[in-house]
């Protein structure tokens, strides 16, 4: 039996043949793990860098905003302090002026009190002289009428009496307005008088519409004879013409009470 000689196969040739026949993989597939790791590393670094930069940017922006707000607060406080300073200076000046005015008023009040004391002393001296000469009977020293809004008027009536026996003047007063034959009695707030040497009566009344007095007449009814004095009413004038001043008051008889 004829056997043919078989040559044993070479393993290297077999490997080469297998390698040449097997398909080759792309580079990116063979290195995919390394590429993924690199991408992840790069992405993480980018994210980390962005986060740190963003935080730093926010920190700078927040610092600038806080600095601006602080500057505004300081400016407001400065303005408030300036206003307080101005107010304090104004108050100090007003206080100084008030102190000076109070000082001047006190001095003026002191002088007025001195003048008042001197006038009272002089008046007392004159009254004693009048008593020595028989005194002064009840009379009207002065009358004044002042117009007010709404057709109202104010009267001021000064009465005087100096009695040798120092008897008080007690009685009633009546004021009349005269226009031709028409007479109007003025309603008085107090028609009674009671004084030693001097008394001032004041009050107000409303003039009837269309009434234009020509004269004003004052009646005094005391313990002695009645006193009647008439004064001219000057139209358009603020005051009533009065001729009864202290120097024009007639002297009474020496036997007056």
UniProtKB/TrEMBL annotation:
Domain of life: Bacteria
Compositional bias (Polar residues): 1-22
Pfam family, one: DUF6776
Region annotation Disordered: where it falls in the sequence: 1-23
Segments crossing the lipid bilayer: 33-53
UniProt keyword terms in alphabetical order: Membrane, Transmembrane, Transmembrane helix
InterPro entries per record: DUF6776
Protein name listed in UniProt: Uncharacterized protein
């Amino acid at each position: 039996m004829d056997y043919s000689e078989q040559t044993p196969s070479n393993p290297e040739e077999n490997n080469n043949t297998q390698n040449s026949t097997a398909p080759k993989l792309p580079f990116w597939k063979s290195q995919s793990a390394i590429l993924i790791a690199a991408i992840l590393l790069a992405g993480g670094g980018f994210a980390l860098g962005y986060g740190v930069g963003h935080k730093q940017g926010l920190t700078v922006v927040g610092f600038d905003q806080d600095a601006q707000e602080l500057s505004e607060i300081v400016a407001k406080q400065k303005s408030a302090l300036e206003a307080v300073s101005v107010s304090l200076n104004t108050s100090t000046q007003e206080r100084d002026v008030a102190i000076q005015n109070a000082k001047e008023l006190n001095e003026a009040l002191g002088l007025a009190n001195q003048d008042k004391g001197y006038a009272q002393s002089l008046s007392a001296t004159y009254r004693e002289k009048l008593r020595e000469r028989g005194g002064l009977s009840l009379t009207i020293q002065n009358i004044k009428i002042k117009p007010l809004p709404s057709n109202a008027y104010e009267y001021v009536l000064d009465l005087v009496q100096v009695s040798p026996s120092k008897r008080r003047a007690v009685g009633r007063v009546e004021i009349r307005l005269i226009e031709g034959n028409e007479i109007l009695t003025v309603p008085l707030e107090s028609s009674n008088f009671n004084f030693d040497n001097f008394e001032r009566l004041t009050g107000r009344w409303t003039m009837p519409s269309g009434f234009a007095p020509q004269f004003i007449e004052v009646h005094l009814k005391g313990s002695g004879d009645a006193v009647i004095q008439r004064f001219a009413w000057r139209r358009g004038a603020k005051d009533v013409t009065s001729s009864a001043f202290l120097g024009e008051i007639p002297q009474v008889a020496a036997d007056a009470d």
